[in-house]
Structures are given as C-alpha cells and as structure tokens.
Amino acid sequence: MDIRLTEVTKTFGRNRAIGPVSLEAGPGVLGLLGPNGAGKTTLLRILATVIAPTAGQARLLGYDIASPAGRTEIRRRLGYVPQECGFPTGFTPFEYVDYVAILKEWADRRTRHDEVRRVLGVMGLTDVAGRRIRRLSGGMRRRLVIAQALLGDPPLLVLDEPTVSLDPEQRLRFRDAVSTLADGRCVVVSTHQTEDVAALCPRVVVLHEGEIRYDGSPSGLAARADGRVWTAADRQPGAVVAWRSENGGIRQIGVPPVGSELVRPTLEDGYLLLVGGAGNRQEVPA
Amino acid sequence: MTIWHADAELLAAYAGGRLDLARTASVEQHLLGCGVCRAGVAAVADRSLLDRVWADTVDVLDRPPVSLGERVLTWFGLAAPAARLACNASTARRAWLAASTLLAVFALAAPGADDRLAVWLLVLAPLVPMTGVAIAYGPETDPMHELVASSSYPRLRLVLLRSLIVVPVTGVLLLACSVGVPGGPRTAVLWLLPGLALAAMTLALEGRFGALRPAVALSVGWIAFAVGARAGTGSVLAAYGPSVQLVCLAALVAAAAFAARGRHPSRRSF
Amino acid sequence: MGHGGDGVANSQATGSGRTELSDAALLAAVARGDRNAFADLYARHAPWLQVRLRRRCGDPDVVAEALQDTFVAVWRGAGRWGGRGEVPAWLWGIAVRRFLNVVAGRARHDVLVPVSDPVVTSAEDQVLLGLEYGDAAGALNRLSPQLQAVVRATVLDGLNTREAARLLNIPQGTVKTRMARARELLRQALS
Per residue in B26-41, pLDDT tens? Predict the structure, then answer.
C-alpha cells in the first residue's frame, strides 16, 4: 500500500480541519472531491509531509511520516503540486525547475539539467524555458508547477487542484498526461471539477467538512443518486440542489415529487447529493 | 538545362577524403549553394557525433546565468548547487539588504549628526543579523515554501545557506558602525554578540514557532531592554555591559547547540 | 526524407513540419528565440558542416567542439546575419573561425589535406560540377601539400592571412610567400 492513513486528524487551534480520516491507496489515480473548505488541501499537505497530523498515524510508501528519517525517504519519492505556489522574482522556467531539482538533491549539473529539460518537455514548456515566468500566462505557470513535480519520476504524486486556471483543451491534455503517469504510480488529485474525476479516476473519495463521505468508484457515486434526479420547469419542494440545465428546464436533486421526469444520474449528481448545497453550481433559488 | 546534383558515391568519396583538392573544392562550393546536396551529405555524416553535439549545445544554451554571489561562493569552495540555494534574492531579502544598507549609510553619516541618534544604531544593529536569518525560511517570506517544505534537502543546511549573506552584511555594518559610533570600533563591536545571539535564538526557535513570531518577539524584547537600560542609567551602553555579553554568549552557544541537534518534529509544521 | 533530422537527439529537432521555411526565415526565427527553428537549422546544416570540418582535421573531438561552438554562436548571433550573402556561406564563416579557435589552442594538430589520387568521376560529372578551374584543376592538384593547405585556407575557406597563419601554425610571412608561389605555379600552368 502506497498510502496508509489511520485515524488522521488535523486541528488548527480550535478548528478541526480534518478527521478522523482513514484511507488506504495503492498505485493508480485517486480523485479527491470536495467543496472549498472541506479539508482537501489540509489532507494533501499531510500527504506531502508539509504539515504533521495532530493525531493518527500515516505511512507513505512504507515509511512512517512521524520519523525524520521516514519523512526524508518519503520526500525523495514524492512529487507535489501545491494549490498556491509562488515563484522567485526574475526566474525563468528553467531556473525554477532547476532550483527545485537542487532541493531534491540532484547535485550533478549535467544530469540535473537533462532532467529539467525532460520534465519541461513533458509539459510542453520547452519553447518558453528561457522566458521570465512573470511574462507567462496563468495556464503556463500551472504547467510549470506540475513539471517540477515530475522531477525524478516519483512513485507518489500529490496534486492539489492542478487544473485550476487551465483552459478546457489544456485540461484534456493534462488528463492524458496523468493517465500515462499513473502507470505503476500512486497519484492523488484533488479537484472540485467533477468532469476531471469522472474522466480520470477509477477511485473517488469525497471529503466534506473534514470527513470522508464516500470512497469507491465513480459509477458507485453516480448510482447513489439513482431515482433522486429529475428535471422540471420550476424548482420543486424536496429539491436539495437545483440548477438550470443546458437544454432549458431545471435539474434538481433530492426527493422527487411523484410523477417527475427522472433522469439518469451523473457523478456530479451523486456528489452534490452528498455535499448538499455546497457544490459549485449556480443555484436556482427555492 | 537540368539541375545537377552530386550522387551518393561522389558525396561518400568527398566525405571519406578520397577526392583531390580541386574536386573537393568544387563539391564544397556546390554545397554552399545547393540544399538538396546538403541533405545528401547528411547521409554520410557522423550521426552519433551530431547527436552528441546537439545535446551539448542545448546544454550550454540552457545553462542559467551564474550570479556574482554564486561565483564568489564557489571561489571559496562551496559546491555550485549550494551556492545557488544561498544566492537567489527574494523580495524579502532585497528589502532586508536595503534596510541594512540604509542603516550602514546612516552610521557612516552619523559622526556629523547628533550623538544620541548615533547611539540608537547600537540598538538597531543587532536586529540586522537576526532578521536576515528570520527571512531565510518560512511561508511568510518564501514564495516557494510549500515546495521547500516537501523537499528532502536538509532543512538546517538550507537555512544556513540562505543565511550566509548575513555574514558579509554584518561585517559591513560593523565597519560602518566603527566609524559612526562615538567610541569607535571598541564600542561598535559590542553589538556583535547580542546580534549573533538573537540570530541563533531565532534559528533555534524557528522549528517550533516559525521564523516570524520569534523574530518579532525578540526584536520587541531587545528594544524594550535597551530602552529600559538607557532609561535606567542614561546611556544605551548599559545594555551592552559585560554581564549582558556573557548572557548573550551563553544564549548563542545554547541556541547553536540546540539548532544543530536537528529539527525535532513539531506539532505545527515540519 | 533525407533531412538528417531523425538522428538528432531531441524530439523537437526532427523538424516539425517547418521544412518549407527558407534558411533566412529559420534564422530570423532563431533570432527571436525559437528553439524549434534552431533545431531545424541544426538538422539542415550541422551534417555538412561536420563533414567539411572533418576534412580539415582528423580529431573528432576537435570537430565536435568546433561544431558546438559554432551553433552556440549561431544561437546567440542569429540577429547579426544582415541578409548579405547566403546563409550556408555565413555559417561556414562562423564554423571555420570557431574551428580555428579550437585548433589554435592545441599545440599540435593534424590538418588534413586531400589526397592527390583523384577518384574517377564521370566526364559528365566533371563538366557539370562546373570545374571552372579547367586546366588549373590538374595544376592545383600538383601543388605541394603545404601550398595546397594555404590555398584552401585562404581561397576556399575565406580566412585572411593572419587567420590562415594561426590555423596552419606558420608565420604570416610564410603564408604570403606560399600564396605567391602557388599563384605563380598556377599562372605558369595556365599559360
């Protein structure tokens, strides 16, 4: 098992961000879904060994997160894309990835630079490698942060909202890149975009208010909403969430009135049912 | 008239050096003007050499420029990657350098100015090395903190590398104060131990509390102490008496030893 | 597709469909920092430059170093090609001078001189190769190796007296005398 979390809790002061959370994961892509504030970032920061859990045990790649030696071993096999990441002023993409490579203990210059070139190539950034980062678009900067996570081909990849600020085409390319990467590797991707999860992850974990509400396949999550999704001309009582769908009409999730026009549930429907109104759909007011 | 191109045999003979001077000259002159034949020569070129040279060329072009600071450090024997870590100036560091320069300039200009003002230098100077260490690590000043925190590079070594700049800056400030402070070098050097002690304490406390909070607390504490000492005896130099120096020395040794033990896992962060 | 790009180690160096661009256009793109154009330029010109350099020096490391220096210089100086003359000639001008730098730094170097036994080429080839030297071709080939080296360095490779002297490791005066002698012999042969 690449990830083994046992009753992990994290509190900041009086605020309990997550927990208790127990999770086991092996090679493959795991999608972490949840609304803002659900604790996804906190959980991922624990996986990336940036913060320590307040309680519980965590073993990553067989190493114990609580011991300094274990943490070092984990970090040598880890690639992390944080949700927010800044760049040193005046750096070019090449210098940025090179800097991270030095932090990852690539001491020999030539092999390090060859590896930097490789990951920049994988993310399609070779052409802009010499340009200043501040001149790059948001999407390119995001790809740059993903590129540094690929240094050294780490067996564990932790990606926190990697597709935010990527346009749909880039998101598609990113999904392809991740599926190939997931071969033999454990990849944890957090997102609040259900389409990314549906397309990419054979396993979904829904986090809400710091707790795991669902852990299983995407189709299973969609099936949760079986018989609970319908469309109508107006919002109806019994609807927990309702929004305007593409073909007119209002798509609603909850307890359908008798005789409603039921529709086949999607992953998003299952997710929204689980998190109540905390999803990111533009709601139609009751 | 049909366009003439050299056949493979001729090009092979040329590449193999089996043509006389006149023919070699003709072929070479022809190649300068004919793209088709240039492509033909590619078939007899040394493919592995070409690949190797391409990789080497790209390597030269990609190499990031080496800053003056890095060159100085490598000249002193520091490994190039470590020098890189030591040298990139963040916005926080630039601000710190500016403030230190201001202080040094003020010290140099001080002899003409009011003595009381000049003495305040002695209060602020110890804060300079401490601040330099405080900004070397931590989410407050490092835009890449999340990545640094999740990397395997030894933490203490990283903080020390990034704090290296404190050494020359402290030296410069010391020199400037020797000029500006009444009492000259003998008085100016008094702030060195307190400065180093404050810096070491920041380093030691950083694992548990982060860099910013100890730095702020120590600054406030030190200024309060200096002000109090002055209020008590009428001179700021009371804050630098022998007992204070001894305490600072003890604190410096203790903090350094503590920091050198390695970081202990803290509840707050790694 | 004999563009010689397939062997080059780097995915973008295989000429991503830019093979229609002229050398001048490629060079302009390189001046703007276009790495793909640079890879295409390399794929087009590095092979013949390597072969031509190989005919000047037997040491492959020297050739490799000169070739690398050449293309680094091309990358950095692409903007300096003012559009005068042809790109290949400009490239050779850079390459031969980079070669000179590498070679002059070494104490001994063997500068290859073509053999005097000609390969038999067809009569048609001879005519169409535009051997304007005509009768001079024979005379050229009969020159001694030292004279041939000087002729090649100055006349064919475009070096001036000082550069030729550095390359051949002889004093400038010797270069001039040998050139004069070569010219004299050729004049005699043609008359």
Answer: 889 889 988 889 999 9
